[in-house]
Specification:
It is a single chain. This protein is of the alpha+beta class. The chain has a domain of 58 residues. It is built from four helices and two strands, in the order E-H-H-H-H-E. A two-stranded parallel sheet has the order 1-2. Helix 1 runs antiparallel to helix 2, helix 1 packs antiparallel against helix 4 and helix 3 runs antiparallel to helix 4.
């Protein structure tokens, strides 16, 4: 399912760096899952609750809330599922710039 992301045109110059950082999250998420590092996921959830919404990536904010709950419950299976959704979103979103 393609997800549309509406981003303010003024953010266009810094959007590539933002996307690059989200892709780096995937690598860190995999490492954290392998190490059962729930503190990483709590920290990630707090980062994702702020910045992505500014860019219009509200789906990542939704996932951040799920990450926080799964980390608090120490639920690695749920964190793996969320990571897969995160990865799929990064591969399938389409940015539309708005004035």
């Amino acid at each position: 399912m393609l997800r549309l992301v509406y981003v303010n045109r003024m953010l266009k110059p810094i959007l590539p760096r933002f996307i690059e950082m989200r892709r780096a999250d995937l690598i860190e998420m995999t490492n954290a899952i392998n190490q059962s590092d729930f503190n990483y996921f709590r920290d990630l959830s707090h980062r994702l609750l702020g910045t992505p919404g500014t860019f219009g990536f509200h789906y990542l904010v939704k996932l951040a809330k799920l990450i926080e709950i799964a980390a608090l419950n120490r639920d690695l299976d749920q964190l793996k599922k969320i990571k897969n959704k995160y990865e799929y979103f990064l591969k399938s979103h389409k940015v539309i710039f708005i004035p």
